[in-house]
Structure formats: C-alpha cells, structure tokens
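Entry:
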Amino acid sequence: MKQILSLSKQLGPLLQSARKATGLSQAELAQRLGISQSRISAMELAPGSINVEQLLALLAALNYELLVQPKNGDAEAHGAATPDW
C-alpha cells in the first residue's frame, strides 16, 4: 500500500489499516512494541501524539517504512534536496 499523507489526522486511519492488513489486533501490536493496547488506540485515534521515534517503531513492527520526498516526487525539480530551515 502506498499512501500520501499531508495532514497528521490522515495517519491514524493509515496505521489502523496497516495493522489490520498485517492481521494484528491492537493488543498484539502493543505486545510487540512493549506498550499498552490503550496507547495503540490513542495513536490510531490521535496520531498527532506520536513522536518520530514512536512512529518509526510502529511502522517497523507493521513491516512498513517511511519515505519522504518532494510533492512532485522529483527532487531535482525542487532545487536542493535539503530544505533550508
């Protein structure tokens, strides 16, 4: 599944869908991560509460990865590949 996210609220349904696609309940996923089932529920319902480390651990447990790219998918069309923050 390839999904484009622009808003944090889009992450919750994606996480829930990925979890279900891997055949895991919230409790089973929580056990894999060493956290509570209620925390998994909170992550799916309020994904803005997830930090980057938690997101990467969650994705790894679901056998997913995070890909960040320019909106058009072409780094050269946007000039420098690194944003100037």
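Helices lie at 11-21, 26-33, 37-45, 52-61.
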